[in-house]
Amino acid sequence: MVRVITYGTYDLLHQGHINLLRRAKELGDYLIVGVTSDSFDRGRGKLNVRNNVLERVEAVKATGYADEVIIEDYLGQKIDDIQKYDVDIFAIGSDWEGKFDYLNEYCKVVYLPRTEGISSTLLREESQAVYRIGIIGSGRIARRFVPETKVVNGAQVVAVLNPNQKEADSFAQIYGIQAYTDFEQFIQNVDVVYVASPHLTHYDYVKRSLLANKHVLCEIPFALSKSEALELYKMAEERNLVLMEASKTAYCPAFNHIVTLVKSGIIGDVVDVIASLSKQVLPPTRELDRLQAGGAMNEHAPLTLMAIIKLLGIDWKDVSFHTKLENGVDIYTKGIINYPHATSSFTLGIGVKTEGNLVISGTKGYVYVPAPWWLTDFFEVRYEDQTKNKKFFYSYDGEGLRYEIQEFLSMIVNNRRSCYKLRRKESVAIAEIIEKYHNGENVSEI
Ligand code: C2G
Asked: Does one domain contain both 281 and 399?
């Protein structure tokens, strides 16, 4: 009996897949089809898959060609499967020509003709509206943002707004988009807005964009006070618009996994969270400029507070800060947030360097995320009995902004106004703690 194996995602199953499965089956007597798991696909950069793994397995079964369906969940699994299932032929579409020659050591490799003119990507694009994204601001983060939109279906950056004509033009030229210096003209030509302008302009730009009925993704710090955050979310809610804080780590797969693992009790009750983030900068730079709302708190508190709040919630008891100022900006701030049953602390630096890791301590063990924890791609769950330790590896693709962009568009498409990865009330709580610092509540200078 000749045993054949083939693999794929089989999203929005189409004639190309069916032809491929038929041809694969014709190569032998028994066909095994490996369908990729959702997390495996995310890990290999396929962020736009529409059907979940169960739907995709059902679709493959319904073709009638598969004698057996298995799940592909890790890199290198093909070699294991071929040996485990005693496979004679590995078959795959010709778009992979040459890529699987390494399997020749284990079985015969056959590249089957691919069906032209149809693909899951094409089907997704046809059924997906394209959102014209306008970027407000043209600084470092905006430059990182544009390439990330290329891997998200339905995202297309078309315009940039910067009151400085030269800066707007030079940014627009790099990315082949339209430059605007006037907000009113800019807003008429976009569907959604990404606010990546200087901190102190966020509130105003978000408000004006919402008033123009545009969905908004706003860079951190989203707001510098609780009342501003509340007001903006209320405004978005009333207008049925998505307003999302671009707290990139909150949307990244490895960080989401940490939260779900911890919440499921893998380290017992959480007793302490320690999160640090330092990026040393040299003058002249806006981070060190008091008039541009520089300082370690404004720069780095949003991400570290996000981690603490995702893990311990928003019902804290008290908050205090220890801060080192230079020319009116904090170059280092340490904050302590106490909860009824846990404590937490964060250390932030722009003029002081410290280890940027995340440690979540529990009654049974702890989670260790090495620096830079905010670009999470690896973490370890550790116990007293080290034989029980478990390491988790992820890929953190590109600049890591693709996850938030994907979430933002998915909220719009699916008419969701709040996202469990970062709830609006959690975002408001972040703004509230930043405000406490600026109000000097429990702040001591060192
Ligand atoms: N296919 C085809 N014709 C098309 C589209 C796809 O023959 N028009 C084939 C592909 O070549 C592949 C199979 O259908 O053999 C599944 O395609 P996808 O769902 O796109 O999955 P893919 O990303 O190719 O996964 O481990 C996963 C595998 O490496 C391949």
From this structure: yes
